[in-house]
Amino acid sequence: MMSGSFLTVFGLMMTSLATEYYQILLAQGFCVGLGGGISYIPALTVISTSFTAKRPIAIGTASIGSSVGAVIFPVMFRQLQPKIGFPWAVRCIGFVSLLMAIVACIILYCRPVPKMRARSLVDWQAFREPSFMLFSVSLTLVMLAYYVPIFYVASYARTVVHTTTSLSFYMVAIVNGSSVFGRVVPYLLVAYVKPITILMISVTASAIAMFTWIAATKTAGFIVWACYWGILSGVLVTAPTSIVAHPVFCPNVNYMGTRLGMMWGISSFGALAGTPIAGALVNLDTANFLRAQVFAGCMMVGAVLLQLWPGYKVFRHDRNRDQRQA
User: What are the TM regions of this chain, as residue ranges (predicted)?
Assistant: First the structure.
């Protein structure tokens, strides 16, 4: 957690000094990205191993922080950059990140942790489990589509919906702000609905969102669509973490961190490739986003289909457990 926090803050500070594209790529792309990834899994593992019945709600509540940051930092940069310039605007974000990282590290450091022997970064048994692999690949398809609207919502608002430049910029904040509801509200129903059911419904709704995005060409309708997608996006990034704790995907809770890292590691290839693929499909000169929208929708449909088998295994496992306890 400390090393990830250091890389994140260091990358932001180096970004403030960057003057060439390759420098921004190394600092913001690789350093901040690597730091965020290193910090993300330990934080989720702590929550996943500290809660059982309330695990989905705990994960969703903790992940609200990323939604808050995703709203505050873009607005903060937009307000500061014209007044103090790019370098100091980025440094201010870096200082805020440093403060939050210190608080997080102190909280985790004070948490009592039983001594455990070091384990491998990879649990090779997981590759022989169809449910785990199908679920991980389905998340790869989700990630292929997930960042397409997030990256292109501002460009779409400006070139297709013809909003003001200011509103097009704040569309990203609207999406990220709406995700707060998706990170918490669905899991208030976790006593009645299984987390994997919530995820499958959300992925199905996301497929619908990608295709209905095509028809969102008016300002009011596009704002409603952005809120709708924002709520769904919140579910998509929190549900998998609570789901992977299920015995079908992680038979040994001591390997929770390893399985989480593997799951998000596999799906990260989708996050890496999705936006460049969409970039090749979008034609900004003619304001044509159709191919990227269809691509994102098809990826979501594929993800739902891949989740059918893991979902069946979860339901069968829980049914057999309930029968044994009856």
Answer: 20-45, 57-76, 88-110, 131-155, 167-189, 196-216, 222-249, 261-282, 294-315
